[in-house]
Amino acid sequence: MAAHILTEAEKEQFAEEGYVIARQLFGSEQVAEIRACFAKVVEEGRVPGYFEPKTAEEAQGEPLLMYPRILYPHRILDTARRYMLDAQVIAALTALFGEEPLAAQSMFYFKPPGGRGQALHQDNYYLQADPGTCIAAWTAIDDADQENGGLVLVPKTHRSAIQCPHEADPALSYFRDEVDLPEDAVIVPADMKAGDVLFFNGSTIHGSYPNRSADRFRRSFICHYVGVSTLRLGHHIHDDLHAADGSIVKVASNESGGPCGTAYEFEPH
């Protein structure tokens, strides 16, 4: 049995606010294992198709080119795949979805000092889960606060429609998409300690600001999940879902152009 089960209050917060933080879902040894796994990737220098960092000269001062995100690490790293399907995470997601979850994708972000943020956006614009939505499990591998570019969220926007984004300010965001805020919206910080896991709805507006610290990374391991009743998903992930036992599940590709009415290239988190 999973050791951490969301309380009724936590489940109610997710239902009302569109997000909840499970404090210390992972212990220090587990966080250290994840951190060491990705530190080894950096040490080895390059994994074609997954991690292709630039030299300082090639990056011309852009930290995120020297420490690019890793997409789908569960496909190449046993540790990433194991934590993507961790029993505590699966138990929490089962409670939040009200049904069996399926893991759709994984990512690892380094966000070094000086790294730009990510403009406000909604995840299900990219995953295109239908019916329903996706849920993110965002695990802090370092303490994350507003100095080093921790996440911010807009409560209650999980009830909002998925927007067609406009272009973000490239001085603040490396991510090109940005959505509008509803009237009277309040942006709240999601400050976290290493080992905390933030769960949020695929419609919840969220993002981050630049890492303005002098020497603090903001590493995070992020996975997205959908419910087992999902029938269609974005073309990039529809045929590579993972059930809790590790078996592969396939659903139909969502051929919709989404709220913009046109196809797009996948740009998650």
The CATH class: Mainly Beta
Count of the separate structural domains? 1
| Straight-line N-to-C gap | 31 Å
In spatial order, strands of the major sheet run 1-10-5-12-3-2
Work out the helix count.
7
Q: Which helices and strands occur, and which strands form pairs?
A:
Blueprint: H1 8-17, E1 19-22, H2 28-44, H3 56-59, H4 63-66, E2 70-71, H5 78-84, H6 87-97, E3 101-109, E4 118-121, H7 124-127, E5 134-140, E6 151-153, E7 166-167, E8 177-178, E9 188-189, E10 197-201, E11 206-208, E12 220-227, E13 232-233, E14 241-242, E15 248-249, E16 252-253
Keywords: Dioxygenase, Oxidoreductase
Protein name: Phytanoyl-CoA dioxygenase family protein
GO molecular function, one term: iron ion binding
Write a brief caption for the model.
With 269 residues, this protein is an alpha+beta fold. The protein is 21% helix and 22% strand. It is globular.
Structural notes for this entry:
The protein has helices at residues 8-17, 28-44, 56-59, 63-66, 78-84, 87-97, 124-127, and strands spanning 19-22, 70-71, 101-109, 118-121, 134-140, 151-153, 166-167, 177-178, 188-189, 197-201, 206-208, 220-227, 232-233, 241-242, 248-249, 252-253. The chain has 269 residues and is of the alpha+beta class. It is globular, with a radius of gyration of 17 Å. The strands form five sheets. The chain has a six-stranded antiparallel sheet. A four-stranded antiparallel sheet has the order 4-11-6-9, with no helix packed on it. It is built from seven helices and 16 strands. The longest helix has 17 residues, at 28-44. It has a single domain, classed as Jelly Rolls. The mean pLDDT is 94. GO terms for molecular function: 2-oxoglutarate-dependent dioxygenase activity; iron ion binding. InterPro entries: Phytyl_CoA_dOase-like.
